[in-house]
């Protein structure tokens, strides 16, 4: 522990060097602003600024890229809460309760809770990086295709039943998402599937286009005739972003649980932040005494996934830098930034480049403090977005959606894709289906299929491998338990409905 503290102190010395501090601030500022814009996430910002790192020293270059990453995490939450527009797919689940809070005039409170959750979770993630990196790397090595498939299965089942209404509808939406996920070229055989002869679908559907369509365009179509202000009667004073003691108490345990979920998944290579936020939300809904209120404006539905997202973001750097295995596309870009500088990620990185490893860890804390300082004056501006009427706000949002979706692959086809999923999402909403499980199924679909097939190849087609390996067996058991709980809850609801008409007669 003493050595870790000494190394961290050295890292703060590196992070507080003037040019490093300047690039960290630049990173979090750009990340925050880009995160607020609908359709423009960390992936777009890092892609645009990656060439800049060619002429930079490795330490400030990596600090800047990391600052964009976690700065956009908070910025993305702003768009999700105020406008129901997740600029980064992990924030799609924040829309479920964040936007209803805005419509109730509590947008400032939701943003305040998000700020607290982000700083707390990021701090825990940093401490985990400092003290538990060797242990988490050892745990990560134990996760092969079998274990990854089993945990993805648990995530799918938990996410399918997290939506309001019938669990069967949630499962149907997840299956639709899984079907969307297999569109494109098969990784193992090279066969093009479900493309309907369209060459643009050979690489599959675009995640950003689906997220923007289901949550941004669909919401616009549902409210196209609405001409009033988003939060009629919403308080717009700066002090309204400060949650009350009761609201803090209500959010504290969800915040802690979300942080733990994010930390656990951050150590597992190959698991992106989207699954983390969905599972954190599903966990809160499962253990809540009032699960039916989720989706109507629960602070727990904002605090837990946002905490999971931020702790995951910090801990994600462990497998990326220690093993060279990125957790998602953004981490892959940051990994590319290291390789551009001629630095090979791996266990030797800590000893060969301590200025990069410990300087980066210290810069996380510095950057998160800068984010809090930056957003205290800016939060009033974000909340004032509540005053903009729909007739001005949503056409502007649609423009940014189009720009953001186009920028992912410079393809007009992606814009049509977002529009198509906007129409699909609006139809499903009219039929009282939750669209969130579609995104979960789409994200996990390819990973579930790939790891399932790999596991069967390793076991020569023996399905028993999923219960013979201890970690996998535990997750399969948890999945089975979740299904049984749903069946029991459904049977109990039916029993209560049958019993209700009998009560007046008995009286």
TrEMBL record:
Annotated DUF112 domain residues: 21-440
InterPro entries: DUF112_TM (IPR002823)
Keyword Membrane: yes
Segments passing through the bilayer: 21-50, 62-83, 110-133, 139-158, 170-187, 207-234, 255-283, 323-344, 356-383, 389-406, 418-444, 471-491
Keyword annotations: Membrane, Transmembrane, Transmembrane helix
Top-level division of the source organism's lineage: Bacteria
Protein name: DUF112 domain-containing protein
Lineage, highest ranks first: Bacteria, Pseudomonadati, Pseudomonadota, Betaproteobacteria, Burkholderiales
């Amino acid at each position: 522990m003493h050595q870790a503290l000494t190394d961290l102190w050295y890292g703060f010395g590196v992070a507080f060097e003037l040019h490093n501090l300047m690039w960290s601030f630049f990173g979090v500022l750009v990340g925050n602003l880009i995160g607020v814009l609908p359709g423009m996430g960390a992936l777009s910002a890092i892609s645009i600024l990656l060439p800049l790192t060619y002429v930079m020293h490795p330490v400030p270059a990596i600090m800047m890229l990391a600052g964009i990453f976690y700065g956009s995490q908070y910025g993305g939450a702003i768009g999700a809460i105020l406008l129901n527009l997740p600029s980064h797919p992990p924030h799609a689940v924040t829309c479920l309760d964040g936007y209803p809070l805005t419509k109730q005039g509590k947008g400032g409170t939701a943003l305040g809770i998000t700020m607290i959750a982000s700083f707390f979770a990021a701090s825990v993630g940093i401490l985990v990086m400092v003290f538990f990196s060797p242990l988490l790397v050892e745990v990560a090595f134990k996760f092969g295709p079998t274990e990854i498939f089993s945990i993805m299965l648990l995530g799918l089942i938990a996410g399918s039943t997290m939506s309001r209404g019938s669990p069967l509808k949630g499962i149907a939406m997840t299956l639709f998402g899984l079907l969307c996920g297999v569109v494109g070229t098969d990784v193992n055989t090279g066969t093009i599937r479900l493309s309907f002869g369209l060459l643009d679908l050979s690489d599959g559907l675009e995640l950003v286009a689906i997220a923007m369509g289901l949550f941004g365009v669909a919401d616009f179509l549902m409210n196209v005739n609405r001409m009033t202000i988003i939060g009629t009667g919403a308080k717009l004073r700066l002090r309204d972003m400060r949650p009350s003691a009761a609201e803090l108490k209500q959010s504290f345990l969800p915040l802690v649980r979300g942080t733990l979920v994010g930390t656990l998944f951050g150590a597992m290579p190959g698991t992106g932040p989207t699954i983390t936020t969905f599972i954190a939300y599903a966990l809160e809904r499962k253990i809540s005494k009032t699960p039916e209120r989720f989706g109507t404006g629960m602070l727990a539905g904002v605090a837990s996934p946002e905490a999971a997202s931020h702790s995951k973001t910090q801990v994600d750097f462990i497998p990326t830098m220690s093993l060279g295995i990125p957790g998602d596309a953004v981490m892959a870009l940051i990994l590319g930034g290291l390789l551009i500088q001629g630095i090979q990620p791996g266990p030797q990185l800590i000893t060969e480049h301590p200025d990069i490893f410990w300087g980066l860890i210290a810069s996380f804390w510095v950057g998160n403090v800068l984010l809090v300082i930056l957003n205290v004056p800016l939060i009033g501006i974000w909340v004032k977005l509540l005053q903009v009427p729909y007739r001005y706000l949503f056409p502007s949002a649609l423009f940014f959606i189009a720009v953001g979706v186009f920028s992912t692959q410079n393809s007009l086809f992606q814009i049509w894709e977002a529009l198509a999923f906007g129409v699909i999402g609006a139809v499903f909403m009219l039929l009282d289906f939750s669209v969130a499980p579609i995104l979960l199924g789409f994200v996990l679909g390819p990973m579930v299929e790939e790891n399932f097939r790999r596991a069967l190849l390793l076991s020569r087609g023996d399905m028993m491998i999923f219960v013979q390996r201890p970690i996998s067996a535990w997750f399969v058991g948890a999945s089975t338990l979740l299904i049984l709980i749903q069946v029991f809850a459904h049977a109990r609801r039916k029993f209560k409905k049958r019993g209700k008409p009998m009560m007046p007669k008995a009286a």
